[in-house]
Amino acid sequence: MKLVRHFDHANVTILLNVTLLYFRHMWSQLILTQHWPSTFCSMEHCDPKFDYWTLHGLWPDKGHECNSSWHFNVTLIQDLLPDMQKWWPDLKTPASSEFWQYEWQKHGTCAAKAESLNSQHKYFGKVLELYHTLDLDGVMKKFNIVPSETYYAFDHIEGIILNFYNVKPKIQCIHPEGGKVQILGQIEICFNSDFQLTNCEHSETDTLNLIDFLNVKGTAFSVCDHATPVYYPPLKGEPSM
């Protein structure tokens, strides 16, 4: 009986250690990231065909490429493709699914640690759902934050988003040499594990300089400066406000 008790105790200890290790590496926050096509294409020399904020991804605050053997399969999300192509396009190669593949391998396989996101269809479907629920583009327009040749105060843009959603976003810009103006590029809005809005906090993505699949090597979005005017560039060919 003593041997049995010792064996059971050892098993319980192992189980507890494995459980603790799992939760230590389990994400607690999801970062829904949208970027402004005109700004992105100014870096990538692509042709921005979208005059609204498009999806970059949904990123857990912990983990990258959590399961390299879980390969992206576009046939599993066929019913989502019309929405994906419209709201989550590859700005460089619109006809390609390579961008979604990259986002799944890097971020989706980590998000999938949660049962609510544990398939490709659940992950991509939830990203689209959160994107439409936020309607960031509509909120910006509602409060007259529109692409313009006139610069905005950063605090004005941040204040509109903070007051509407009642959480603090993370807003990123490009910082051209000279420092007289910064270019609005990317906005992160965060959710907890129950998909409730929460303040965006420090995460692993901060240390990556946001040099992601879509960015030119050495070019990155970084957190906007509160004191520097913000340029929100219009789509090429559109009249500025």
Automatic annotation (TrEMBL):
Keyword Nuclease: yes
Gene Ontology MF: a single term: hydrolase activity
Reaction(s) this enzyme catalyzes, per UniProt: an adenylyl-uridine-RNA = a 3'-end 2',3'-cyclophospho-AMP-RNA + a 5'-end dephospho-uridine-RNA; a guanylyl-uridine-RNA = a 3'-end 2',3'-cyclophospho-GMP-RNA + a 5'-end dephospho-uridine-RNA
SUPFAM superfamilies documented for this protein: Ribonuclease Rh-like
A GO CC annotation given for this chain: lysosomal lumen
Swiss-Prot/TrEMBL GO biological process terms: RNA catabolic process
Keywords from the named record: Disulfide bond, Endonuclease, Endoplasmic reticulum, Glycoprotein, Hydrolase, Lyase, Lysosome, Nuclease, Secreted
Protein family according to the UniProt entry: Belongs to the RNase T2 family.
Name used for this protein in its record: Ribonuclease T2
Organism in which the protein naturally occurs: Hucho hucho (huchen)
Taxonomy of the source species: Eukaryota, Metazoa, Chordata, Craniata, Vertebrata
